[in-house]
Backbone:
């Protein structure tokens, strides 16, 4: 089985266009096989986006997929957004979707933080749980090296995918707040100190 955090060049492409409203803002996105949530904006991502604070400064969307998080943030908050992913198909879609939604964002390939060379006020993700705990925890804990002092990591995780244990572990390195719980999804703020 092919996962959205890998590059499967043999996977058949079937690009589709979806239309969604997020906090009363209209968006269109091209999606395809081999990217997360290709049929439409997933509930976890929507819950995360609906609960974000007033974002300022520099933002990183890690594991951007086809670009829903970063493009929404750029359009709503008019801030500088970097978007990264390891999946080439996702990056191509993110570029197309930025143009489609008339936003300017900086999109580039990076295996976790490998190609990230600056610090951010916010790092935001619907992290890929299926990558396994080792890589997931690299994404969560190496964020500290790329956050400003008092910078914030914002994530959404389902309780059935280990949200409570992740919150407990994050609390060892960050000041953690549960911002919202919605149908089993936890929106988590982890502040760098």
Residues:
């Amino acid at each position: 089985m092919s996962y959205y955090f890998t590059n499967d060049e043999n996977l058949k492409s079937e690009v589709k266009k979806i239309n969604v409203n997020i906090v009363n803002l209209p968006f269109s996105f091209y999606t395809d096989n081999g990217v997360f949530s290709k049929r439409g904006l997933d509930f976890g991502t929507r819950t995360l986006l609906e609960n974000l604070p007033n974002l300022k400064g520099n933002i990183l969307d890690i594991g951007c997929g086809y670009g829903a998080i970063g493009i929404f943030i750029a359009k709503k908050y008019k801030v500088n957004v970097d978007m990264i992913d390891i999946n080439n198909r996702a990056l191509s879609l993110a570029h197309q979707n930025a143009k489609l939604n008339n936003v300017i964002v900086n999109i580039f390939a990076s295996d976790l933080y490998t190609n990230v060379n600056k610090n951010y006020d916010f790092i935001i993700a619907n992290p890929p749980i299926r990558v396994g705990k080792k890589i997931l925890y690299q994404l969560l804990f190496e964020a500290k090296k790329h956050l400003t002092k008092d910078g914030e990591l914002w994530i959404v995780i389902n309780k059935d995918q280990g949200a409570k244990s992740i919150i407990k572990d994050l609390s060892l390195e960050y000041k953690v707040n549960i911002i919202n719980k919605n149908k089993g999804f936890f929106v988590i703020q982890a502040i760098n100190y």
Remarks:
- The two ends are 40 Å apart (CA to CA).
- The chain has a mean pLDDT of 94.
- DSSP finds five helices and nine strands in the chain.
